Known about the structure:
The two termini are 45 Å apart. This protein has helices spanning 3-16, 46-49, 97-111, 134-146, 157-160, 172-175, 260-268, 280-290, 298-319, 328-346, 354-365, 375-405, 410-420, 424-433, 440-458, 471-491, 519-534, 546-551, and strands spanning 20-21, 59-67, 83-92, 119-124, 153-154, 167-170, 176-177, 191-201, 228-242, 245-259, 497-502, 507-512, 539-545, 564-565, 568-574, 578-581, 596-605, 608-615. It has 4 domains: 3-270, BirA Bifunctional Protein, domain 2, CATH 3.30.930.10; 276-394; 406-459, no CATH class; 471-615, 2-Layer Sandwich (Threonyl-tRNA Synthetase, Chain A, domain 2), CATH 3.30.980.10. Mean pLDDT is 87; it is low at 457-467 and 558-566. α8 (280-290) packs antiparallel against α11 (354-365), α11 packs across α12 and α13 crosses α15 (440-458). It has 18 helices and 18 strands. Helix content is 39%, strand content 20%.
Amino acid sequence: MKANELRRKYLDFFKEKGHSEIPSASLVPENDPTTLFTGSGMQPMVPYLLGEEHASGNRITDSQKCFRSQDIEEVGDNRHTTFFEMLGNWSLGDYFKDEQIPWMFDFLIKEVGLDASRLYVTVFSGNSKIDRDEVSAGHWQNKFTEVGVDAKIVDDAESNGMQGGRIFYYDEKENWWSRTGMPENMPSGEPGGPDSEMFWDFGEHHGLHESSQWKGEHCQVTCECGRFIEIGNNVFMEYQKTDDGFESLPNKNVDFGGGLERILAAKLDAPDVFMTDLFDGAKKVIEQVSGRVYGDDIKDTYAFRVILDHVRAATFLIGDNVFPANKDQGYFVRRLLRRSVRFARQLGVRDSLLSAVAKTYIETYKEAYPELSEKILDEIEKEEIKFAKTLEKGLREFKKVWDKSGSISGKDAFDLYQTYGFPLELTEELAQEEGQDVDREMFKKEFQKHKDLSRAGAQQKFKGGLADDSAESTRLHTATHLLHQALRTVLGDHVAQRGSNITKERLRFDFSHDEKMTDEEKVEVERLVNEQIKAAYPVHFELLGVDEAKERGAIGLFEDKYAQMEGKVKVYFVGDYSKEICGGPHVENTSELGQFKIKKEQASSAGVRRIKAILGDPQ
């Protein structure tokens, strides 16, 4: 069975039961400021679970796109993915447990063809305020009995193992569902209720995680040994949290969510969700480019899974108009793609890979999700090329620090971040692979120290042509550093600053050069400056001795014109592109600058040219 067939089979099954099929909502929630992403099938349905009338009726079925950013670090085993499809069916005050459990059993056993002897379920054991869910346990027991499977009900599996059982009672840590977790974590107004979850048994041996061991007689369906995988969850949404506890919702609702990939893995009896056909095309591309084979080596397989998951997630996010950025939803797209580049390097891949992987997903999913288009590939390729340069430098510097001291301090991590734009998360992952944690508190202190120094510098009166220390002037002043280096790249190393004047509206930059710039040269300078702005380079300074500053390639006036501290000069670094002696102030990242545009280029004096330029608003 293939994924498209399973999705269609599920939706048609519930349409035959009187459900209306609705399309997936966007991965970016509408009218929900509490979360960045749609992380469950239930999220878009909350208004209707609380009593609002749905235009399509009170029986709904769908396959909802979901993204869970908190699972990024979990990806790499045989089951976790950040993006997944949640098959859903909903009763909005219509049917309840008496219908849902028999229907779900029939779908899995009769329609999909799963072996009932390898299916296990859990139900809610109750608490001081809400009764034990004996109704659900009874329905499951009856359905198993119908197909000749013994269905013993066990009360204490958590402490004593499975004990030959098939139906297990668990408390609210396992069998209660709301968007915010257990009952005590729910805010007032949040809906929730007991649930009944379904698990597939891959067997004592071939279901194991690479790093886990089966626990034998102490194993239970909720343990992490890898033998069992949850394939679906029937939530009986019948309560709403209040300031005084819980009250019953006006209508009793059913919220079923089943992982498409996990049900498919159960059908294929493949404990690895990445062995389903959804990933076949992407795996072939990675294998062809890397020369490695999925499944041959544990470490390589981990890298494959990260790339397979992350590129798929980024493809769907960009399809919903979430583009790589430094904040909000875009931050996670950037992080997914950057982690993918990093793990591609682990597989020996130095060339562009991610857009080719993304293309296979567009082909695989285009029938079900027509919003996936070729525009996605351009965005991914741009981000991959941009980060590849940053990664190579950062990895080299990480290795230098590690080889020298055998550890990475919080300050080292900050230096990697501020100098090379190397993300803290990647430094942490590399350190963890060596058995060490990075001191995040030290990293935060170094970051705050940098911000405080920058702020103090911005409050001073600087020589350098600034009319004031406004944000607009600060942005334009930082842009002069990029302009200076771009002019040297295009015109030659003879270019040197001969003065500047900056107001809130524009920058004026004088530089040594004998000839009028051609239109082509001006276009190229603009392109180079805007390329660095789009690269989102961090901006930082270091206090260096004059000799060291020269050795590291800093340009600028080495006399005492700029602020010096204890015989040192302040050198500002814009990523690894610009290194210049300067007093400040500057932005913290080039992404704050906006579009750079040369308005005029003219003579200033003998052998000196003058450029006037502006910046558009940051994106």
